[in-house]
Q: What sequence folds into this?
């Protein structure tokens, strides 16, 4: 179902309002090795003053999904690791690819991560063009058509069984996949925090034969 003009305007209003309070996430972002300025490059925000209908997302990190046609969704992540669920979304929102607009500017390859913040960290720390799919259950068949034109699709899978399944599924649906699974118990973000951006940059470049 396509978003109406009023729905798009509301998502833009929410993104703009929440972005003004991103400084409130400084401590949380620092645990991810992200600065507030780096978060701003992806229009992240904090729901300090919820718009009507967003009251249940108060104090969460707002992660807008921006496509060439504009903002199509916002997901809300808890900044408290003990809070459940970690992620919340607007009821009825259509699943889409995070950072989708990068497919228009990437060169011969693109990276695919399992989450939005993994995409943010990988992009700002290494400069590699990246998109995010929030889990194997949110993969859509038409994504294969979007990614099929790249010479190489580097899938950076989490270091667990779900990550392995994610990598296998994309390998089945795309002919150009190079699977790069994180060490056990790690995702892209945690391995960059522990080992540094050079660890992952080196392995991506090896996938590209550089």
A:
């Amino acid at each position: 179902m396509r978003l109406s003009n009023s729905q798009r305007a509301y998502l833009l209003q929410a993104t703009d309002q929440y972005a003004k309070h991103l400084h409130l996430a400084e401590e949380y972002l620092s645990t991810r090795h992200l600065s507030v300025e780096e978060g701003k490059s992806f229009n992240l925000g904090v729901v300090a003053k919820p718009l009507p209908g967003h009251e249940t997302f108060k104090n969460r990190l707002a992660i807008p999904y921006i496509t060439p046609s504009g903002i199509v969704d916002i997901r809300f992540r808890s900044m408290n690791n003990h809070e459940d669920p970690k992620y919340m979304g607007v009821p009825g929102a259509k699943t889409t690819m995070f950072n989708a607009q990068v497919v228009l500017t990437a060169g011969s390859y693109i990276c695919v991560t399992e989450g939005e913040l993994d995409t943010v960290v990988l992009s700002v720390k290494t400069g590699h063009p990246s998109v995010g799919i929030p889990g194997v259950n949110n993969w859509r068949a038409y994504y294969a058509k979007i990614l099929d034109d790249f010479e190489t699709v580097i899938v950076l899978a989490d270091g667990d069984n779900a990550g392995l399944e994610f990598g296998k599924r994309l390998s089945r649906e795309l002919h150009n996949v190079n699977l790069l699974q994180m060490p056990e118990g790690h995702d892209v973000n945690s391995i960059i925090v522990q080992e540094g951006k050079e660890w992952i940059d080196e392995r991506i470049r090896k996938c590209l034969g550089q």
